[in-house]
Amino acid sequence: MGLPRGARTLNTLEKCVRILTLFTETTPVLGVPEICARLALPRSTAYRYISALRAHRFVEEAPDGAGYRLGGRILELAATMARKPLREVALPHMERIARETGETALLCGLREHVGVCLEKVDGTHALRVSYELGETYPLHAGSTGKAILAHLDPAEQDTVIDDVGLPRFTATTITSEGRLKKELAKIRACGYAESEGESIVGTHGIAAPIFSPSGRIMGSIGVSVPHLRAEEKNRERLIRFVVDAAKKITEGLNAQEARES
Predict the structure, then answer these.
(1) What's the CATH code, domain 5-70?
(2) pLDDT tens for each residue of 121-133
(3) How far is CA 133 from the centre of its chain?
(4) What is the CATH architecture of 74-260?
(5) What is the pTM of this model?
């Protein structure tokens, strides 16, 4: 008599969890032979479990083909766990941006392969750009999304582009993968992202990346302003506010982890 169905399911789940726990900072990439040896699994069984984990993006092939590594879904779950402290650390800096510039400050994160608005603090200008909490949007169109996309590793960027595509929203939306990759490299080099009406006509966006204590991209903070308030002097001032806020939020997250460890 075989195991009851529930017991078989639990056994499979346990094996999958054990595979995931094999990946560490010192062994970020593992081949099937190593997984088989460490867990005493037949090769066919190991491939079956890895296929299931790949299907749900818990593992993915390493870029050099040397084996497998943890996938994007793990990072998304980690970001979900971190959202509460992220909001708590970010909120005072968002309030300062809104108070001193009059513009609406946005805190954005990653949900699967799209950006999501995690928090906002409305500005004081009568004419302002606003978003709804929980609103999602593609990462390639707009500054907050590009600030996140630019700091995913190349394989993750390709996965996002393959999954979501590069749909056009306005005349300035970037729909060429080559042009987008150049834009992402520029964002990494200068430390912030800008957009000129890429998702909403008549707006200008500025955003900077926020990193977790481990150095992974965690989200972005930004402002989206009517084009008439994006003249060079005000734009440069907004860039300083946003970049400074992102840096201080990242530092705050590091300090929080240090206190809790």
Answers:
(1) 1.10.10.10
(2) 988 877 766 677 7
(3) 17
(4) 2-Layer Sandwich (3.30)
(5) 0.69
